[in-house]
Amino acid sequence: MESIDLIVRRIQKGDESAFDQLYSRFSKKVFHVAFAILRTDEEAYEVVQETFLKIWFKRSELDPTRSIEAYLSTVARNFALKIIKKSIRETLLEDLPEIISPEETDDNILMEEFQQKLEAALSHIPPRSREVLLLSRKDGLSNAQIAEKLGISLSTVNNHIHRALNGLKDQLQVPLTLILIFVASYTAHFQGLIIS
After folding, report:
1. Residue 101 Cα distances to 49, 98, 114, 170, angstroms
2. How far is CA 170 from CA 63, 115, 122, 164, in A?
3. Which residue, 31, 51, 95, 137, shows the most beta carbons closer than 10 Å to its own?
4. Domain boundaries, the chain
């Protein structure tokens, strides 16, 4: 098994398979850190997404000599606390001026920019491929269920999903892992993009 510091060095160079290894090793830990604070699966999963998105886009700043596990836990904790602060602001402090730290603003901008890019990239995917991808990733249908629902063959479903994911990967220039975790969560925003 490859050492974590080597994986981090590969991530710094933009190696997507190294990023996938990091996600595979630590996504559950990040989820548990967030869940311990937030107590909801949905928000904890959102923290996982934001944490790994930040890792990818700030990969040049990673320090292979420091514990990546500790860093991921810190980033996840900060994102979880940000969700709690936002909730408190919305419910109790609506009339008070909002105070946001520069780092929090950077993280918000990063997430918003990625969501906008994902939305734009989804709009460039052929409509049928987009529909199949959303049925698969958002609605959780199996490929066989999609084939039956749309009256197409299983191999056609596979081709549509492959075409959609590769199209998103090419347009967004991020690891496929990031695309998969974001498409599952943010597709509700893109339902209007499906054209029958």
Report:
1. 21, 10, 20, 33
2. 28, 16, 12, 10
3. 51
4. 4-92, 118-193
Distances (CA, A) of 37 to 48, 76, 93: 13, 10, 21
- What does the alpha-carbon distance between residue 178 and residue 13 come to, in Å, rounded to a whole number? 17
pLDDT at 115: 76
Task: Give the start-end residues of each E strand in the chain.
Answer: none
For 171, the enclosing helix (H) or strand (E) is helix 154-172
Which residues, including other chains, have CB under 8 Å from residue 63's CB and lie 6 or more apart? 8
Confirm whether pTM is higher than 0.70: no
CB-CB contact of 68 with 22 (8 Å): yes
Please give the Cα distance from 68 to 53 (Å, whole number).
15
Q: Work out the end-to-end distance of the chain between its first and last CA atoms, rounded to an integer number of angstroms.
A: 46
Q: What is the pLDDT along the chain (196 residues), one digit of tens a residue?
A: 789 999 999 999 999 999 999 999 999 999 999 999 898 998 999 999 999 999 999 999 999 999 999 999 999 999 998 888 877 666 544 444 444 455 555 667 777 787 788 888 888 889 999 899 888 877 778 889 999 999 999 999 999 988 988 888 888 888 888 777 766 555 444 444 333 3
Instruction: For residue 178, give both structure tokens.
Output: 């990031």
CATH architecture of 118-193: Orthogonal Bundle (1.10)
144: its two tokens: 């066989």
